[in-house]
Amino acid sequence: MRPGAVEDTGGLKARVLADVAAKRGVLRFVERMQRDAEHDDFMVHGPAMITLSATAFPLRHLVAAYAAHPDFRPEWEPNEEEVRPDPRFDRPGRA
């Protein structure tokens, strides 16, 4: 990342650190959902499983920026095939 015309390197550093902190916050949330998904109570387990299934796709796209890192795992690659159109929303005459 290069600083903008008006932004100094200190501002760029602050923005990068804020971006990293935001992503870590998202990962903490996902870790919490992973723990909740193991819970015996369905009222805890069910919503966590739904949340995990909904967050997998966008998280893979976020981590794709780190694909060159030696710790990056192949299963983290974005998989466009995971998102299939839902036939319930296919209606004649709709684009």
From TrEMBL:
Disordered as annotated region, ranges: 73-95
InterPro entries recorded: DUF6221
Domain of life where this protein originates: Bacteria
Pfam families referenced in this protein's UniProt entry, alphabetically: DUF6221
Name of this protein: Uncharacterized protein
